[in-house]
Design brief:
This protein is mainly α. The chain is built from two helices and no strands.
Length: 45
């Protein structure tokens, strides 16, 4: 467990960068799902 903390401490900027990327991706996915909910696809006749 100590090694994980040492790794994070040494690579904090990198870890933060990837965490931000993941959070951003999740936000985008949530936005797409909300957009689909608010704008249902046109019904094909």
């Amino acid at each position: 467990m100590k090694n994980i903390f040492e790794f994070i401490a040494k690579n904090a900027p990198l870890v933060k960068h990837y965490a931000n990327l993941i959070i951003h991706a999740i936000d985008m996915l949530d936005g797409v799902q909300n957009w689909r909910k608010d704008n249902p696809p046109p019904k094909v006749k």
